Amino acid sequence: MASIALRAVHKRYPNGQVAVRDVTLDIADGELLVLVGPSGSGKSTVLRLLAGLESPTAGRVYLDGVDVTAAPPQQRDLAMVFQTYALYPHKTVRDNLAFGLRVRGVDRREREERVQRTAAALSIETLLDRKPAQLSGGQRQRVALGRAIVREPRAFLLDEPLSNLDPLLRVATRAELALLHRRLGATMVYVTHDQEEAMTLGTRIAVMRDGQIEQVDPPLAVYHQPSNAFVARFVGAPTMNLWTCRCQDGGASIRLTSPAFTLDLDWARGAMPEAGMLVAGIRPHDVEVANVDASDARGRVAIVEPLGATTVLHVSVHGLPELVRLLVGSEGRIEVGAEVGIRLRRDRMHLFDEQTGRRIEAGV
Amino acid sequence: MSARKSASAVATGLLVAAIVLPVYWAVISSFTPESRLFAAPALVPRDLVLDHYRALFRDRDFWTPIRNSLVVAGTTTLLSVALGAACAYALARLRFRAKSAVLAFVLAVSMFPQISVVAPLYLLLRSLHLLNTYPGLVLPYLTFAMPLTIWLLVGFFRQLPPDLEHAALVDGAGRLRTLWEIVLPLSWPGLATTAILTFLYSWNEFLFALSFTLGPERYTVPVAITLFRGQYQVPWGQVLAAAVVATIPVALLVFLAQRRIVAGLTAGAVTG
């Protein structure tokens, strides 16, 4: 097992496209770090840089404190699970699993023993003599995972390993992966574009955008204290409501003014961006339906999305460009077209600088 | 609809006839006695004899040119595919400077008309003491076969999912091992196609073989057949019999390789 470190890593492709900008990241031994971000954010490139399939234009990569920047993939002793699985189509499942052991010179008896043990752990013993073409998607995914586990590598790199599975299987496999991580105690770097996968799996998650890491923190820290407006919007479902507001310093509090509402936040006093504009955000479950008289704003329900335990309402509020999302219990009967008042929980508001997008902490 | 169908059937029939008929005629004629060769042609042969074949192998020692051709074409094919695969893999997958220039140069080599390089090659081979030897034919053939091999295989390798090779590299295999264990087994169709084309080319090659061999002990099949003709007559029966014999290895090779050329070898490697 190993710790991994990236120091000021930069990757620029020959065509001029910059995939990774100045990424510095420490991954502790035994950690499951999730790299999450929209497509094209450079998360897969970071993984390939770790694997040695790409070499950085600048910066260093360390494994257990040893500089491996120039080491080819075969010298790094990492295992990778590909989104496409990349099983060797001409080899049986057994040979797929054994290939990595064979090229590393593990002797025959131990090879068979380890393949057998891994296959048992993943319940794929009955598939050992089949070719990949004869397997279902879920089975291929297991074999791909098995090919990584059997090597007992220093760390696992997983590139969207669940994205080709159907939703039910994906959730089940996600739970298995979490168990596997706990059982092996291995260092894992996991790439996904699915924020839910990131939240549920990661011991920490690193949110990426445009080749940069926006925030690295444990899942709930990212959720509760997003470091900027992008992270706030990207993490959490339904998406956080974000509004651009004018703000004025009222001494004991600051006053936010948007076309739809005016709020006084006493916890945020002194937190004034220079330009006097900020972005206020609030998660849908921190917005409540209120009496029209006692509300911060009123609007008309545009969309009702029952999710089962809860229902998402999209409310059209005059003066706000986007629909306001809020979560209500599913027992309430609110129809499309109903006039509702909405109330924002002051203590759950997130404030971001309108210019830089950076989070504004209270009482600064 | 049915008119179009029958029209296309007729067209197909004519095309097949145009291709098959000469071959059929050659085969039939090779079994026809010398005396009746120039009689009115008959599609259904009357008496078939083995005279020409007997003459071919007993009087002329046609085994020697066949052996020469097999050795030269076989060696050329093996070397061309083995070296070409390594070159093509490097050109398809590795990153290095001036890659497209190298590819263009490789192609340019095969652009020279053969006749323009015969004289210089002759001098070169003479000073290397390679005239009238097997290497003296294999080496010049490679200059023409390799560009073809490289271009075909580069195209083929580029179609393979790169993740497979990445998986092998991460698994601990080096580039050569990856080529040998992952890329080549998956490239059978491409390798077979390339091998057939190279073999056909070397088997049929005439100009170099005529120029760089000096005696019957090194003549290849096309040269030998051409030199059948005497001063006053051409032994057509034997020429045709030789042509039939010369077709057999090629037909055999195509037939064997065809079984390997099946689509879907990479099925199941990656999703989708």
Characterization of this structure:
- The complex is a heterodimer of chains A (364) and B (272).
- Chain A is of the alpha+beta class and 364 residues long.
- Helix content of chain A is 23%, strand content 33%.
- In chain A, strand 4 and strand 5 form a beta hairpin.
- The model of chain A has no long low-confidence stretch (mean pLDDT 91).
- Chain B is an all-alpha fold.
- Chain B has helices at residues 2-30, 51-59, 63-93, 99-109, 114-127, 134-159, 162-171, 175-186, 188-204, 207-212, 221-226, 236-260.
- Chain A binds chain B through residues 14, 48, 51-53, 72-74, 76-80, 82, 84-90, 99-100, 103-104, 131-135, 137, 140, 147, 151, 157, 164, and chain B through 95, 161, 163-164, 166-174, 177, 181-182, 185-186, 265-272.
**Average pLDDT level of chain A:** 91
Provide the β-strand percentage band of chain B: under 5%
Shape of chain B: globular
- Strand arrangement in the largest pleated sheet of chain A: 6-7-8-3-9-10
How many separate helices of chain B?
12
Give me the oligomer status: heterodimer
What is the straight-line distance between the termini of chain A?
42 Å
Helix content of chain B: over 70%
Low-confidence stretches of chain B: 262-269
Portion in beta strands of chain A: 25-35%
